[in-house]
Amino acid sequence: MNDTAFLQKGYEISTDKEKLDFDAIYGYLNTSYWAKGMPVEKLKTALENSMCFGLYHYGAQVGLARVITDKATFAYLCDVYVLEAHRSIGLSKWMVQTLLAHPELQGLRRWSLATADAQGLYSQFGFSRINNPENWMQIHTPYKAD
């Protein structure tokens, strides 16, 4: 399906942060394997300081993709989801295509992401396992679920 087909079915992708439905986003992310237990204030700050690609169906938030970036050299893709009732029609592919084509994200030297289960999706867009993972380091401090 292409942009027009999705638009005709009532879907829209927007980077307008005014459209974000925080309660819907938090409701989903707080059940996800990657963000469970994230404090509300942390999510608010994360959304404020990221490029957010909201996915809407007739105005209701049904998905999200968040990009953390300096808009010059690096971007980290995270918090990508589509609600269960809207899956299997290509919306996640459409979101990834849309964000990769965004004018402010062109010419970046590196994109990065972490996923436990969606390698097949991202590999279609050129993402691959990290070369020389031994060069990468992290500090990981998981959220403690209440």
3D structure, described in words:
It is built from 5 helices and 5 strands; from the N terminus they run H-E-H-H-E-E-E-H-E-H. It is an alpha+beta fold and 146 residues long. The chain has a single domain (3-123), classed as Aminopeptidase, CATH 3.40.630. Strand 3 (60-69) and strand 4 (74-82) form a beta hairpin. The radius of gyration is 15 Å and the shape is globular. The N and C termini lie far apart (41 Å). Keywords: Transferase. One of its GO terms (molecular function) is acyltransferase activity, transferring groups other than amino-acyl groups. Residues 11-146 form the N-acetyltransferase domain. InterPro entries: Acetyltransferase_Butenolide, Acyl_CoA_acyltransferase, GNAT_dom.
Quick structural overview:
The protein is of the alpha+beta class. It is built from 5 helices and 5 strands; from the N terminus they run H-E-H-H-E-E-E-H-E-H.
